[in-house]
Amino acid sequence: MTSDITLFVNPTAGRGRGAQAARPALDALRDAGLTVRTVLGHDAADALRRAREAVADGTGALVAVGGDGMVSLALRVVAGTSVPLGIVAAGTGNDFARTLGLPVRDPATAARAAAAALKDTGGRAVDLGRVTGGSTAAGAAAAGTTTAGTAIPEAGTRWYATVLASGFDSRVNDRGNRMRVPAGRFKYDLAILAELAAFRPVPYRLTLDGGRIVEVDATLVAVGNGTSYGGGMRICADARTDDGLLDVTVVGDCDRTTLIKVFPRVYKGTHLDHPKVTTYRTRTLALDAPDTTGYADGEPLGPLPLAVECVPGALRVLAPAAPGPA
Asked: In angstroms, rounded to a whole number, what is the distance separating the alpha carbons of residues 281 and 209?
């Protein structure tokens, strides 16, 4: 294990919390005996280029300071490599950190945990989702920018760590990303209420593992590698990041009243037993619906159709051992 690592910082994450978190994280990593290089780009594209250079130069780990948008950028650099990813969660949602059992908005503790994992085991392997199709350029144009900064047009394949959202939840995500206040989950609560006014189910076609076809009018379809999105909405509450499978949550055709009753249960994951909710587990998924945009890790992918697969062990994370099944 090399003691030279890279701190990958988004200063705008969480309305400036990224910049505030960088110093205590840096101090904690250095106190742990690590030599730290800081990557702080002029924009998302520049930061991504600098992070790729650090990995090419043989950095021992990439430690992302920010939210899920910053993690999404980091995945473009380290997914499929042996370089582990540390997370100092300082954004709005921080869902991947929650899924991994990492500290949220406690940068010194998060950095110490990353350093300890690096020295102890070198990190542990987790699955990632990989998406093909869509157009991130089109999706970025619809949403304005990525949550990590300037939009990066990129077509083809993208990695994600938490949840791919489509339907009502992707429209909520779009609106939430445009809102400046309030912060955290309350922003998404307000976005939900605003989107209810224009709510309409859409016809979906799901192809599971290249064979079984499900055609359904649905409010939303969420494809989880992790459990939550939107700052703690446990839409795929039973998902595990080490089982080689994607958890698919389908909320069927329901009226506004039912949706208003069901959605608060998402924060505890108790919505999964509602009769309008169906779940599937699959290794691959072809996802299609008209006039519907996909989001993953809160970032726009572009319009459906999308092909999604679970890639086992695609990422090493500096995180504690995964808990056993509940």
From this structure: 9
Q: Which residues contact 298 (CB under 8 A, 6 or more apart)?
A: 67, 68, 69, 72, 93, 147, 162, 173, 177, 229, 230
CATH code: domain 4-124 is 3.40.50.10330
Ordered by start, the domain boundaries in the chain are 4-124, 128-315
Look-up: residue for tokens 């500096």? Answer: 318
DSSP 104: B
Say what the pTM is.
0.86
User: Per the structure block, which two tokens stand in for 325?
Assistant: 């099944």
Are 89 and 22 in contact by the 8 Å Cβ rule? The answer is: no
Give per-residue pLDDT as tens, 221-249: 999 999 999 889 999 999 999 999 999 99
270-310 per-position pLDDT tens digit: 999 999 999 999 999 999 999 899 999 988 999 999 999 99
DSSP letter, residue 149: B
**Nearest of 129, 25, 28, 31 to residue 39 by alpha carbon:** 25
Please answer whether residues 218 and 253 qualify as being in contact, where contact means their C-beta atoms are separated by less than 8 angstroms: yes
Fold of 128-315: Tumour Suppressor Smad4 (2.60.200)
Distance CA 202, CA 170 (A): 13
Q: Which residue has the tokens 């993953």?
A: 296
The C-alpha torsion from 225 through 18 and 91 to 27, rounded to 10°, is 60
- Ranges of beta strands (E only) in 99-186 are 124-133, 157-160, 163-167
What's the rounded Cα separation, in Å, for the pair 50 and 138?
A: 25
How many residues does the structure list for the chain? 326
